[in-house]
Fold:
Amino acid sequence: MDIILKEDVQNLGHKDDIISVKNGYARNYLIPKGFATLATTSARKAHQEILRQRSHKLEKIKEQAEEMAKKLEGVKIELGAKTSTKGKIFGSVNNIQIAEALAEKGFDVDRKQITIDSDAIKEVGSYKAKIKLHRDVQVDIEVEIKGE
Structure:
């Protein structure tokens, strides 16, 4: 079944993508939750017209994301966490703490845009976090975890 995504859906696609998914997934989850609509011929024509009108705005948004990526390239974040004697962190460090640390440095990044190689950081050390600012623009930052 072909659908048009209304929002970004992780591991599926971005807003305004036309994709093919299984019927049950579309009917029981994506369409009722408002994440997608059926890609009928009339919906596809309306979708193309909307994309044509919106293309100028999308270029500006991409340019802003590229500017933000240039600013974020050299950023290194240092976070402190309570640790055991062996270097294990009590709890974990996740994308929420990274987003808060970026906000303190003056970068407005949503926590949903940040992904870490592993689900959560549980040991002291240096890690890479990916920030996806736009569907075509992503930047890696270094996250240093130190014991307190």
Remarks:
- The first helix runs from residue 23 to 33.
- Strands lie at 2-5, 18-20, 36-38, 76-81, 88-93, 114-116, 121-123, 125-134, 137-147.
- Helices lie at 23-33, 41-72, 95-104.
